[in-house]
């Protein structure tokens, strides 16, 4: 079956070119509708529900971006491609918010259009493959009464589909999961090299720990998140029963997070009491789970944090200071950026901005002629917002310090300190070995050039990083001390007080 396409453009020549000049058949596609204004285009989307829409951004009636927004909200089409004469970061931000697959600049390069369409079709095919896998899995789960129930409940929850008579009778008579809650689990900062941290193993462990506590639980999907259905007995007050599950899940999330050295966050939905409420509770939980990207530690997200107004951030000021090696000003801009993104709590948008900033920073590093180019750490799977922010912050600091200090040996030492301060074994000897020089020579040169001992400089950097983490996170002192290169928390506290005049706890209290 060919993939259906709707083409929208108010310029007749372009519209004709898109419908006739492109060999759609070769790509297994068919143009099922076209229009020269957005209002008619909206009607086509509602009627035809095409696989792909290719739309001009400026049209009478509704613009291409307005149609993309409507498509994002209502899901008329699987994929959306915009034709535009604009190429700037602000446009890209808006496009990513409405999940636009791609945008093609005018005048149209038909080869690029073909590549964009093929990419979109590949995405649709991948979605179809996933749906087929889910369907096969659900069919295979119908061998026992419990697995049949899981399949039916999760299908109703996901798709809000009307069940047939025999399904209704089955659910009516099967009391165990007549009412319950969904548990959604998201894993962040998993070490790539730890096989024990695989999703399947963690899913099994969660089920085991719930069953050990006498709580019946059904497992759902295990793609980028884990989904479970927890039983609530009909004879128990629902809110009391839900709180018990929240407390149990919170304890299990914290235990697994500590054992696997990652952040394991969960969301417990409201209680469903009827089949019709299944989909509502499921969708609420899925939406709430997006907040987990901003979680700072393992556990269940209990309170919904207030979301600030959507932000449109600009990177110009930050990049200006980065290019000129203005470390303090660059860090101030970056701290403000991180605060704005956290306040908005739009996970997709925050990740997009971080990716764009990383890309622009890499260009700055290349333009500065850096011999030793820093790189973002790749030790984690699905890093959360704080981890990504810290890694990106270290990356920006390394570039800024290099540009500010030049390519001399001391500049390289400072760059190395910025990269390795979190390693408790890093010191003068390690730095000298990495740079291929003698310990004594490096120590004397550093003192001569900076009027500061290397060890004192390293301690100052570590304490400065600790101050930043105390300001911007809720991490424990023991966690912060380890992250900035101190093995002993008590020694970290002594050094911090000596440098700052107060203990880490007093410092945090003074800024809150």
From TrEMBL:
GO molecular function: DNA-binding transcription factor activity; sequence-specific DNA binding
GO CC annotation: cytoplasm
Parts forming coiled coils: 110-147
Pfam families from the UniProt entry: HTH_18 (PF12833), Response_reg (PF00072)
Keyword field contains DNA-binding: yes
Chief site of localization: cytoplasm
Domain Response regulatory: 4-121
Keyword Phosphoprotein annotated: yes
Record SUPFAM superfamilies: CheY-like (SSF52172), Homeodomain-like (SSF46689)
4-aspartylphosphate carried by residues: 56
InterPro entries tied to this protein: CheY-like_superfamily (IPR011006), Homeodomain-like_sf (IPR009057), HptR (IPR051552), HTH_AraC (IPR018060), Sig_transdc_resp-reg_receiver (IPR001789), Tscrpt_reg_AraC-type_HTH (IPR020449)
Function: May play the central regulatory role in sporulation. It may be an element of the effector pathway responsible for the activation of sporulation genes in response to nutritional stress. Spo0A may act in concert with spo0H (a sigma factor) to control the expression of some genes that are critical to the sporulation process.
Protein name, per record: Stage 0 sporulation protein A homolog
Gene source species: Hungatella hathewayi WAL-18680
